UniProtKB/TrEMBL annotation:
The chain crosses the membrane at residues 6-25, 32-51. Keywords: Membrane, Transmembrane, Transmembrane helix. It comes from Sphingopyxis granuli. This is Hypotheticall protein.
Amino acid sequence: MSDTIMSVLVFTGVALTGGGAYLFRKGDRRRALLMFVAALVMFANVAIWLIPTT
């Protein structure tokens, strides 16, 4: 189950990054920045969850 959640989070982060790049090129910089921030938060969550615990 955890692997599925990680996959969905990474896929969503990639989609948000692509959407942010598209909006940035169209000139909607505020929405693009918000999409980049949301993608960064998702990637940070995945990184935190994947840190091995000892």
